[in-house]
Amino acid sequence: MKPLAVIFDLDGVVTDTAHLHFLAWQRIAHEIGIAIDEQINEQLKGISRMGSLERILRSGGAEHRYSAQDKHRLAERKNAFYVASLQQLNPGSVLPGIAVLLEELHRQDVRVGLASVSLNAPCILEALGLVEQFDFCADASRIQRSKPDPEIFIAACAGLGVAPANCIGIEDAQAGIESINASGMLSVGIGVQLLNADLLLPDTAQLNWPLLQTFWLTQHSVNAV
């Protein structure tokens, strides 16, 4: 008895581009006279580009200062800064334990999916040398509702041809955990401050196939009682 698929978030789970996002947003915020810190950055994890911009503007009391066109321009400018910074990514940028886990999932005939709201996910996977390790990547450009809505995880399940109840989702953001839980999947959280994850780990180095298999069996044994 094992999961039929494991679906990963990207930023903070497969690789750590969160700091690159923060630097790009910080640069945009500085240009418009808003100061943001790491605490605000934590609130942006797992949130779409426009959703992140709205939170930054709200934090500076500027949510009504810009038109929709202005906001689109700011978001595109941020993305340009972020994409330029991605040039530093390489296979060595994969977080500890992830490459080995992906290989083992394929050996176990467990499908592997990606559920990231990042529109840059395909080029990030290419830079990391992991394109072939993912059986399906949900297309963020087709997602109408960002996390914590479960839409992107449900889309990943559909693309893999697996029901959510037969999947494990892995996330490092609170919005992502809520998204996984709402989809009907079992949730694994990376980060000690996350709430409501079915399994919580301090970092990706703890992730491995035996742990996930034991977790799956334990959860289903409990539910069967």
Question: What do you see in this structure?
Answer:
- The structure is a single chain.
- The protein is of the alpha/beta class and 225 residues long.
- Helix content is 46%, strand content 10%.
- It has two domains: 5-16 and 94-224, HAD superfamily/HAD-like (Rossmann fold), CATH 3.40.50.1000; 18-88, Putative phosphatase, domain 2 (DNA polymerase, domain 1), CATH 1.10.150.240.
- The protein has helices at 18-31, 38-44, 49-59, 68-85, 98-107, 121-128, 151-160, 174-183, 209-224; strands at residues 5-8, 111-114, 136-137, 167-171, 186-190, 199-201.
- Strands 3-2-1-4-5-6 form a six-stranded parallel sheet, sandwiched between helices.
- The model has no long low-confidence stretch (mean pLDDT 93).
Brief rundown of the structure:
The protein is 46% helix and 10% strand. The chain is an alpha/beta fold.
Helix content: 40-55%
Q: CATH topology of the largest domain, what is it called? A: Rossmann fold
The overall pLDDT, averaged over residues, is: 93
CATH homologous superfamily annotation of the largest domain? HAD superfamily/HAD-like
Assembly state? single chain
What Rg, in angstroms, do the CA atoms define? 18 Å
What proportion strand? Answer: 5-15%
Secondary structure: number of strands: 6
Shape: globular
Question: Main beta sheet: strand number and arrangement?
Answer: 6 strands, parallel
Strand order of the largest sheet: 3-2-1-4-5-6
Q: Tell me which CATH architecture of the largest domain applies here.
A: 3-Layer(aba) Sandwich
Question: Which regions contain 5 or more consecutive residues with pLDDT less than 50?
Answer: none
**CATH class descriptor of the largest domain:** Alpha Beta
Give me the secondary-structure category.
alpha/beta
**Secondary-structure element pattern, one letter each:** EHHHHHEHEHEHEEH
When the domains are counted, the total is 2
**Beginning-to-end CA distance, first to last residue:** 16 Å
Number of helices: 9
